[in-house]
Amino acid sequence: MRSAFKSKPPRYPAGWGDFPAGAHIQQAISAVCNDYAERIFGYHFAKLGSLSASIKLEQSPIRHHINYTPVPLMQGVGDSQRGIEGNITEGIITEANRARPVTFENESYVVGHSHQLPFSENSIDGFLLANELDFAQDPHEILREVDRVITQNGYVIISGFNPLSLAGVAKFLPVKKGNVLHDARFFTSFRIKDWLQLLGFEIVEQRQVLFSTLFFQQKWQRAAKLQHYIASYLPTYLPWCSAVYVILAKKRVIPMTAIKPKRKLKPQFSAVGASVRTTSIRQASGE
After folding, report:
1. Up-side HSE of residue 83: CA atoms within 13 Å toward CB?
2. For residue 277, what are the CA distances in angstroms to 97, 269, 272?
3. How many domains does the chain have?
4. Orientation of helix 189-198 relative to helix 139-149, angle to 10°
5. How many CB atoms sit inside 10 A of residue 5's CB?
6. Could you tell me the maximum CA-CA distance found in the chain, to the nearest angstrom?
7. Domain-located, residue 89
8. Which domain covers residue 37, as residue numbers?
């Protein structure tokens, strides 16, 4: 198996708009992520990467979300919110406040890389990695950081592009050469689940979405109906050919228990022997 580390980092997308069908991909992934987020409880939820930060988890019971992006652009920040904190203008975090989070409506925006998380151990209850591993130079390093800071029984949601789909085939074809999808890693879901299980995660559920090439925008109205029809049958019969998969995993921590000895130790003192000796002494004395 090829190493997951890449000597040259791939191009990183600034948002879903960098993909031809970016809005369609974001909508499909958001629907599954919101369904998964309803099961995650706690105090803090971290969304790693620019793609994850664009997904709004409105159904999440966790109210504090941390958008951890590698670029200082905060997408989705309204004009009325810009200029707050004095150092934020036009939605850009300057060097003066790069190290500290900036909060807007229960969401914190922090600039940094996913393989270097500035969180303490066992502090984050949930993570969202929306295709973050597909554009990572070393996905193992990111997962190790997630494993370090996630709480016991915490959840992680990971979406990725499927190399066995039409999109995986189109990646090697000379179509849309300048598209950032050609730089995506396209890891199989089996490989991602294997990495998670090695770190002590239990795979709770996996869903397959988007049975298309992803390299072309849908320009006709019947495409959405065809997509819905295909998605109703292919996940049952051909789940491996979907363009995108979404995985929900839970961190499992086995508590330490004392090892009980299998052999029972024979006591050195015998109560039966003492009573017999007392009886024999009394008989010898004539009592």
Report:
1. 2
2. 87, 13, 9
3. 1
4. 40
5. 11
6. 116
7. no
8. 16-70+112-259
Q: Is 46 part of a structural domain of the chain?
A: yes
- Residue 7 in any domain: the answer is no
Tell me how far the alpha carbon of residue 219 is from its chain's centroid. 32
CATH number at residue 202: 3.40.50.150
10 Å CB burial of residue 192 (0-12, 13-18, 19+) is: buried
Task: State the CB neighbour count (10 A cutoff) for residue 84.
Answer: 13
247-271 pLDDT tens trace: 999 999 877 676 776 776 666 666 6
pTM over 0.70: yes
Residue with tokens 């809005």: 23
Length of the chain: 287
Q: Kindly give the residue spans of alpha helices, DSSP state H, lying in 106-248.
A: 139-149, 166-170, 189-198, 222-237
Q: Tens digits of per-residue pLDDT, 84-121? A: 333 333 333 334 344 444 444 678 889 999 999 999 99
Q: How far apart are CA 223 and CA 81, in angstroms?
A: 38
Token pair, residue 269, equals 């003192």
At position 14, the amino acid (one-letter code) is A
267 within some domain:
no
* Strand-by-strand arrangement of the 102-104 sheet: 102-104, 107-111, 64-69, 44-48, 124-130, 150-161, 244-251, 201-209
Q: Residue 19: left (phi > 0), alpha (psi -120 to 50), or beta?
A: beta
- Dist CA 207 CA 185 (whole Å): 19
Token couple for 2 = 């090829």
Q: Are 150 and 122 in contact (CB under 8 A)?
A: yes
Q: In which residue are the tokens 């591993």 written?
A: 133
| Interior angle at CA 172, CA 55 and CA 212, nearest 5 | 45
Give one DSSP letter per residue of 162-187, joined into a string. -TTSHHHHHTTSSSSTT-GGGG----
